[in-house]
Design brief:
113 residues; mainly beta; seven-stranded mixed sheet; four-stranded antiparallel sheet; 51% strand
């Protein structure tokens, strides 16, 4: 069955960095565009970053552009999100998504000020 398993979340100080990973299985990973989304308490889920199936066309939400980098390793069926210069407003549950169809269970990121 399809599985998207996020990891790498945790507690980090303001200005720090984290790297999230999403291990995919059960579908042809290299054929799917992938994305990261996040949802903070009391807010709607929002798109953080998107990458095409071949990794050549990353796009970012305005709030993270210049600080976050999305990447993928199709040989390892893994999606990444490098998050730098973290702010308190980045605190949220981060979700991996495949093709606007499959979702992971999420990983919590908490930025302390």
């Amino acid at each position: 069955q399809v599985q998207l398993v996020e990891s790498g979340g945790g507690l980090v100080q303001f200005g720090g960095s984290l790297r999230l990973s999403c291990a995919a299985s059960g579908f042809p990973f290299s054929s799917y565009a992938m994305s990261w989304h996040r949802q903070a308490p009391g807010k709607e889920r929002e798109l953080v970053a998107y990458v095409s199936s071949d990794g050549r066309f990353p796009n970012y939400g305005d709030s993270v552009n210049g600080r976050f980098t999305i990447s993928r390793d199709n040989a390892k069926n893994t999606l990444y999100l490098q998050m730098n210069s973290l702010k308190s407003e980045d605190t949220a549950v981060y979700y991996c998504n495949a093709g606007d169809y499959y979702w992971g269970q999420g990983t919590q990121v908490t930025v302390s000020s």
